[in-house]
Amino acid sequence: MKSSGFLLFFFLIGICNGEEQENCRKVEMNPAKQDFILEKHVFKMVEIETASACEVNCFMEADCVSYNLKPQQNGKLLCELSDSDHANNQQDLRYREGTVYKSFKNRCSSMLCPSTKRCQTGFTRKGYRCVCANGLLGESCTEGPPLVQVVPDIIETVEGRNVTIMCNVTANPKPDRNIWTRSDGILSSARTTVSEGNLTILNITFQDDGSYVCTATNPWGTKSSSVHLRVYSALKLCTEGPPLVEVIPDIIETVEGRNVTIMCNVTANHKPDA
């Protein structure tokens, strides 16, 4: 079992170089504890064929520091990955006949990271790394890639009007600017302006019909959001609409044995399909 993790580490380290090497993981196993499991700290469960596969799964999960192996009735094993170990939670180690508990040597057993970050063992030359617990980035865990939203996602207008499309961007650090592009054509520089990140198109024409994309970039990444602009003829917009349906009269009285014809009058710009 030890060799599988050993070989996996060297496979990963072989494809890492320079700064990427800081993201490679090297771990050592503690002796297995037969007939024991660690409760209350499992974050993922996987059904596996062999015990060594559980070690590999734990190695690949950055937050995993220990695992339980439980035999199943179908002959397979249930691999339970935990984000803590018995060294930090001795009270959660329980006797369960037939099970196996294994853990990595955990540098994170000591309080090495600030309260805003969680510790992951086996990374960097120090043997651990601190990552933001809230999913954000940066030393203070307050930074991240932009959040970009164009509202609404569909805009309908008629020829000749001016349209302003709003692009809301939330980011820390703040992007230098928003970039607008067309996904299905060229953005006309003569009739478009961008102010405070919002796009204004002057004197709308049929050629402006299409999708527009707002993109924002900061040091943590690039995000985009799009809107579809639909342009109609003013005349067409006034003369078209859903069918008008009228059945006359609304009450018909008859007796058994007679034939009855019920009239349905339909008025529409385009003839209904049925």
From TrEMBL:
<feature type="signal peptide">
    <location>
        <begin position="1"/>
        <end position="18"/>
    </location>
</feature>
<feature type="domain" description="EGF-like">
    <location>
        <begin position="104"/>
        <end position="142"/>
    </location>
</feature>
<dbReference type="InterPro" id="IPR003598">
    <property type="entry name" value="Ig_sub2"/>
</dbReference>
<keyword id="KW-0245">EGF-like domain</keyword>
<feature type="domain" description="Apple">
    <location>
        <begin position="24"/>
        <end position="108"/>
    </location>
</feature>
<feature type="disulfide bond">
    <location>
        <begin position="113"/>
        <end position="130"/>
    </location>
</feature>
<feature type="domain" description="Ig-like">
    <location>
        <begin position="146"/>
        <end position="232"/>
    </location>
</feature>
<protein>
    <recommendedName>
        <fullName>Ig-like domain-containing protein</fullName>
    </recommendedName>
</protein>
<dbReference type="InterPro" id="IPR007110">
    <property type="entry name" value="Ig-like_dom"/>
</dbReference>
<keyword id="KW-0393">Immunoglobulin domain</keyword>
<dbReference type="InterPro" id="IPR013783">
    <property type="entry name" value="Ig-like_fold"/>
</dbReference>
<dbReference type="Pfam" id="PF13927">
    <property type="entry name" value="Ig_3"/>
</dbReference>
<dbReference type="GO" id="GO:0007156">
    <property type="term" value="P:homophilic cell adhesion via plasma membrane adhesion molecules"/>
</dbReference>
<keyword id="KW-1015">Disulfide bond</keyword>
<dbReference type="GO" id="GO:0005886">
    <property type="term" value="C:plasma membrane"/>
</dbReference>
<dbReference type="InterPro" id="IPR036179">
    <property type="entry name" value="Ig-like_dom_sf"/>
</dbReference>
<feature type="disulfide bond">
    <location>
        <begin position="132"/>
        <end position="141"/>
    </location>
</feature>
<keyword id="KW-0732">Signal</keyword>
<dbReference type="InterPro" id="IPR000742">
    <property type="entry name" value="EGF"/>
</dbReference>
<dbReference type="InterPro" id="IPR003599">
    <property type="entry name" value="Ig_sub"/>
</dbReference>
<dbReference type="InterPro" id="IPR003609">
    <property type="entry name" value="Pan_app"/>
</dbReference>
<dbReference type="InterPro" id="IPR050958">
    <property type="entry name" value="Cell_Adh-Cytoskel_Orgn"/>
</dbReference>
